[in-house]
Specification:
By secondary structure, the chain is an alpha+beta fold. The longest helix has about 45 residues. The protein is rod-shaped and about 155 Å long. It has three helices and 18 strands. The termini are far apart. The strands form four sheets. Strands 3, 4, 7, 8 and 9 form a five-stranded antiparallel sheet that branches. Strands 12, 13, 16, 17 and 18 form a five-stranded antiparallel sheet that branches. About 20% of the residues lie in helices and about 35% in strands. Among the domains are: about 90 residues; about 90 residues, no CATH class.
């Protein structure tokens, strides 16, 4: 083999080896770049996951900073319940016994009262405002201010103020009149004299009485006819009739309007 051929063969071998080495280098570079890209993709995937994920328990999970707590405002004071209304029976309205008079009141200032007479719950939208319906009525021998309602009905009422309601109050109106025995009060004393007064639930009833312990009749003394004004020691002015120490006072009431007679009340004065 000539020298020129050998040289050519050597150059070809060197060129092949160099080309092979370049391909190897490029392959290593390509593998390195691929590995770097895979790591970058894995890192991006982990950074986009939720802090509470447990898919990668071996990796530290990023946590979101805690939001600052909103300071609580001052507590509003608890409102006291509204005062309930008070319903009272006055008397049956003249004439007859089908209508009764009642009055209502409340200790709640600047409040209104709503009521019903059909048993339903009263409110601003259901029922009647008391002050609007109050008027002058003839009850027995009295002129009273109140509202007329049916005898025997159930009156329900509430106090209303600033959008709030009290508890509901229920009142059963008497269906027919009753006559209580007279109540006898000692109003005061002046030496041997004692001033007493008497009253019953019917303002139009007549009270008959005795002071000697005997049983009173419609022929006995009438309290209204014996009642006068007395000035007691200390300038105390009282109204009543005179009795004495040791007297036994007996009294009963009679209602001509209702045709009723009460039981007898007895009071012994020491």
């Amino acid at each position: 083999m000539t020298l020129s051929k050998r040289n050519s063969t050597v150059l070809q071998l060197q060129s092949f080896e160099a080309s092979k080495e370049r391909r190897g280098t490029m392959k290593r570079v390509f593998l390195s770049i691929s590995l770097i890209l895979m790591c970058l993709l894995a890192s991006c995937s982990m950074s986009g996951s939720n802090p509470g994920d447990t898919d990668n328990p071996g990796l530290d999970q990023p946590t979101n900073p805690a939001e600052p707590e909103t300071p609580a405002g001052p507590e509003e004071p608890e409102q006291a319940p509204l005062s309930r209304p008070y319903i009272s029976f006055i008397d049956f309205v003249n004439p007859g016994l089908s209508t009764a008079a009642v009055t209502m009141s409340t200790s709640e200032p600047n409040a209104e009262i709503y009521y019903t007479t059909d048993g339903s719950t009263p409110s601003e939208d259901n029922g009647t405002e008391y002050n609007w319906n109050k008027r002058t009525l003839h009850c027995g021998s009295l002129i009273c201010k109140g509202v007329p309602v049916s005898a025997g009905c159930t009156v329900k009422a509430v106090t209303f103020k600033a959008g709030r309601y009290s508890e509901v109050v229920s009142f059963q109106v008497p269906s027919e009149p009753t006559l209580d025995p007279p109540t006898i009060f000692i109003r005061g004393e002046d030496g041997d004299l004692v001033v007493i007064s008497m009253q019953t639930n019917d303002s139009a009833a007549t009270i008959y009485f005795t002071r000697d312990g005997s049983t009173p009749t419609t022929e006995s003394m009438i309290y209204e006819n014996q009642k006068t004004t007395h000035v007691l020691p200390g300038n105390l002015i009282v109204s009543g009739t005179i009795a004495g120490h040791g007297d036994t006072v007996k009294a009963f009431a009679h209602s001509t309007r209702y045709g009723l007679t009460s039981d007898i009340t007895t009071l012994y004065i020491d």
